[in-house]
């Protein structure tokens, strides 16, 4: 059973259960104790989780008025985890804030506030508890010749679209080198990125872990856990 390092966040339960359902052993990291180099030597895979905003100065921007920073030191810790995971070719699965942190760690930038910078009629932020965590917000288009398409193929319509939940106000802007966009929302917001040069490096903007009870997106976690067996 591969050990999956999970970046600590405010709500780890669904990530833990998703990893367990996929056959992995969850390890919720404590930045005060778990050194990044030791984590990457010990873990089979790295799961980057949701949370508040990545600091804009880390990608050369000034904070938007809507900026809500994460816990002190979280950005730096997770960027080091990504750097060491890339060096060791440890599988990475990045979710919501995770895809944003992954892009920044690799040299990309972010849209800081979708409603003001990329206004559209698409609902990207359905806040809980007013909305259920797995409530559908919009569709995404998935590129047909991608890892993501292979993993969620049974959910795709003839138009290569599927429905997802959504709880974010930021998104990938300038894509980091080495990545490819493999899904996007109807308004063009990036919904998934991949690095085909790695054994497994996938980021998604929605929250597949919220569906662990019903299993709609369990193939994503199963593929990640399979890649983490080493």
Summarize the structure.
The protein is of the alpha/beta class and 230 residues long. The chain is built from seven helices and eleven strands. A hairpin with a 6-residue loop joins strand 10 and strand 11.
Q: What can you tell me about this protein's structure?
A:
The chain is α/β, with parallel strands linked by helices. The protein has one domain: 3-Layer(aba) Sandwich (Rossmann fold), CATH 3.40.50. 26% of the residues lie in helices and 19% in strands. The protein has 7 helices and 11 strands. The strands form 2 sheets. It has a 9-stranded mixed sheet, with helices on both faces. Strand 9 and strand 10 (190-194) form a beta hairpin. The longest helix has 15 residues, at 74-88. The model has no long low-confidence stretch (mean pLDDT 96).
Largest sheet: 9 strands, mixed
Number of DSSP helical runs:
7
CATH topology: Rossmann fold
SSE pattern, N- to C-terminal = EHEHEHEHEHEHEEEEEH
Radius of gyration: 16 Å
Binned, the helix content reads 25-40%
> Based on DSSP secondary structure assignment, what is the total number of beta strands?
11
| Low-confidence parts | none
Strand numbers in spatial order across the main sheet: 2-1-3-4-11-10-9-6-7
The overall pLDDT average reads 96
End-to-end C-alpha gap: 10 Å
CATH level 4 superfamily: Class I glutamine amidotransferase (GATase) domain
Domains (count): 1
Set out the fold topology.
Layout: E1 3-6, H1 13-21, E2 25-28, H2 36-42, E3 45-48, H3 74-88, E4 92-95, H4 97-105, E5 110-111, H5 114-117, E6 138-142, H6 147-152, E7 161-164, E8 171-172, E9 180-184, E10 190-194, E11 201-204, H7 218-227
Parallel strand pairs: 1-2, 1-3, 3-4, 4-11
Antiparallel strand pairs: 5-8, 6-7, 6-9, 9-10, 10-11
Helix pairs in contact: 2-3, 3-4
